[in-house]
Amino acid sequence: MNVTKAVAEKEFSDIFGHAPDGVWVAPGRVNLIGEHTDYSGGFVLPMALPQVCTVTAAKRDDDRITVCSRQRPEDRVSAGIDLVPGDVTGWAAYALGIAWALRAAGHRIGGADLVLDSTVPIGAGLSSSAAIGCSVASAFRDLFDLPLEGLDLAAVARTCENEFVGAPTGVMDQAVSMMAQPGHLFFLDTRSMRIEQVPFALDQAGLTLLVIDTRTAHELNDGGYGSRRQAVEDGTRLLDVPALRDVGIQDLDAALTRIGDTTVAARVRHVVTENARVEEVVRLLRSGADPREVGPILSAGHRSLRDDFEISTPELDAAVESAEAAGAFGARMTGGGFGGSAIALVDTDAVDEVKAAVAGTYAERGFQPAAFFSAVPAAGAHRLP
Ligand code: ADP
Ligand code: MG
């Protein structure tokens, strides 16, 4: 359960001894399809989760920023607003780096006290990091009357995560966390930044999007993610295109013959086929098709991430395979990979069966138990009224 406004305000005054100026929230997200396409100009189709990072904040008279997190109760981290990358490391960088990114973009801010309290599972591939960045950026915008819209704040939060924290993410996480609408998938063209809110009426169809958190943490700062980005860049250069987005599915076979390195070729094949899968899912949902038809496309996406992009894990594969065997219409790992969460599209009546199947497989294989919840498309960042 997310904290209520009253509880958040009390948490703040217990820590800082005075009342806050406001309470802001920004959600985590789950990506339905479109993985590792957001740094080559491609398409993504995530949705916001009901789980949010809540930020309670007040302006200060001086130029210091102090941040506490209910999930890191031992720490209180403080810095001047003139901080630069490297000054703060660890979890607090996700919040304090927003001050740096805003100032780097030319905005005037002052000091502030911040308390974070998040229900987004941390390190589960559900973007607890963007939830912090987007909630803190929203708080600064309102506290200091900055002339910034949703996508501007998303860009600030991405700059924070890329350059202050040092995590080379694309723009998907921050964009959906800022701009999502309840009941909708968030279709983003990461080249033009065109957004389409695509209705996703799971409920009406008797469907549940089950999130299976493998509770194996992914780590974006280690080599796996960086080497995938490198391969995407290498493929782009070898094919002499502005971005892999420019390689159409109909040109894929010809393109692959021009790439000697089989690993780079496989990475390119994932990205190009993944963009086509996003477009296909959007086409189906726009046309009012039964969302069950999306299932096989999700499963194809998983195979591509497992075999061509090679970022799945035994736990993710087991979650996907068990869910499918227990009747899911489709399933895939979601998020950056190397751990984190999987999703399965299942009949709401079959949710318990699918959970039991995954839990059974995990027990058999000696994996630690997975956690489950159903994802309902929720709202993007906002101030609590
Ligand atoms: P994800 O975004 O998939 O959850 P990341 O590795 O990108 O995983 O971000 C997780 C990191 O974000 C944590 O290691 C921690 O540093 C920080 N973080 C997320 N939520 C909180 C929180 N509520 N309090 C403190 N730090 C947090
Ligand atoms: Mg993250």
At a glance:
This protein is of the alpha+beta class and about 375 residues long. The chain has helices at about 5-15, 95-105, 130-145, 150-165, 170-180, 225-240, 250-255, 260-285, 295-310, 315-325, 350-365, and strands at about 20-35, 45-60, 65-70, 75-80, 110-120, 185-190, 195-200, 205-215, 330-335, 340-345, 370-375, 380-385. The model has no long low-confidence stretch (mean pLDDT about 95).
Low-confidence segments:
none
* Cα end-to-end separation: 18 Å
Dominant shape: globular
Instruction: Work out the helicity level.
Output: 25-40%
Overall structural class, as computed from helix and strand content, comes to alpha+beta
Attached small molecules:
adenosine-5'-diphosphate, magnesium ion
Give the total of beta strands: 12
Largest sheet: 8 strands, mixed
Elements, N to C (H/E):
HEEEEHEHHHEEEHHHHHEEHEE
Rounded mean pLDDT score: 96
Total helical segments? 11
Estimate the strand proportion.
15-25%
Q: Rg to the nearest angstrom?
A: 21 Å
